[in-house]
Amino acid sequence: MNTDKLKETVARLVKPPKGILAIDESFNTCGERFLKLGVPNIEDKRREYRELLITAPKIEKYISGYILFDETINQETVAGKSFVSVLQSKGIEVGIKVDAGTTNFSGHEGEKITKGLDGLEKRLKEYKELGATFAKWRAVYRIGVNTPSFDCMEKNAEIFVKYAILCQKNDIVPIVEPEILIDGNHTIEKCYQVTARNLDMVFSKLRSANVFMPGIILKTSMVLSGKDSRDKSFTEKIAEITLKCLKEHVPADIGGIVFLSGGQADADATMNINEMHKMGDLPWPLTFSYGRAIQNPALESWAKNPADVSGAQKLLLQAAKNNSLASTGEYKYKA
């Protein structure tokens, strides 16, 4: 493990005023989004759309890294340039989703654990050869009467440890993503309790296993009430309670924190992170790693008029710029 190399990669990924763009949707997730917009979920259309995202002019002003899917990291532009080489020419770090999705957690109804450890080191070496410098692994937790359970949190935390160790052994920065889902009718206070308990579990396991903390990035959901809750919190409260949770339950020596948008409206995800940066100094770099919240306008435009690539790319660039400004507390919302 080259700790200096890991720290250098982290520094490039979370250096203000940039964030990470996630374009690592699985076949099913991509298909669901395409279906809603009347786009066929076939490889050529996925490649065409992701070429639009990867070749967007000047996107490197706002984006430090792209998280790719296995299919995407092996694809090329219509002109024959590998997607990886296009990103590298822009100075953008190449990331890769390496988990294989979730599976039912035996004996725990409604709970999921993440799979994909089998053959992971071999895949990491292959991705590194292709140019990947960081990876991502996601676990999901649903808030219910008795969930997430201690056992589920512990099992996913143990899996995070195995993933992180293998990544760092191969000089790849691991992004650890424990996502508390927005589904449900829970209060923001309940989300705080679950998020805090889960973060304590994850970092206790990582620390005990001697994972190199400055060489990891936490990708986390904000502390939010459930989408079906009557408790609708304002930006200031979301920012305040999220920062309180992170400051009290995330080690100060980790490389950085990036947020997922997690089902929020695009503008809400942007304004919430902007508000956090207006609340004073933070112990770690704090930025975004959004997918839909940056892609949505471009995807909708492209679906309506696939020939107007530059128009869709301008929308992508504007969304990336908005979140870049938010990552330093300088975003001004325009209704």
Note the main attributes of this structure.
about 325 residues, alpha/beta, TIM Barrel, eight-stranded parallel beta barrel, two-stranded antiparallel sheet, 12 helices, 10 strands, about 45% helix, about 15% strand
Describe this protein's structure:
46% of the residues lie in helices and 15% in strands. The protein has 335 residues and is an alpha/beta fold. It has one domain (3-326): TIM Barrel, CATH 3.20.20. Helix 8 links the parallel strand 7 and strand 8 (217-220). The relative contact order is 0.14. The mean pLDDT is 95.
Spans of 5+ residues with little confidence (pLDDT < 50)? Answer: none
Mean pLDDT score: 95
Looking at the structure, what is the overall shape?
A: globular
CATH topology: TIM Barrel
- CATH evolutionary superfamily: Aldolase class I
* Structural domain count: 1
Instruction: Give the helices and strands as they follow along the chain.
Output: HEHHEHHEEEHEHEHEHEHEHH
Percentage of residues in DSSP E strands? 5-15%
Largest sheet: 8 strands, parallel, barrel
Helix fraction bin: 40-55%
What structural category characterises the helix and strand content? Answer: alpha/beta
> Can you count the beta strands?
10
Total of DSSP H or I helical runs spanning 4+ residues:
12
The CATH architecture assignment turns out to be: Alpha-Beta Barrel
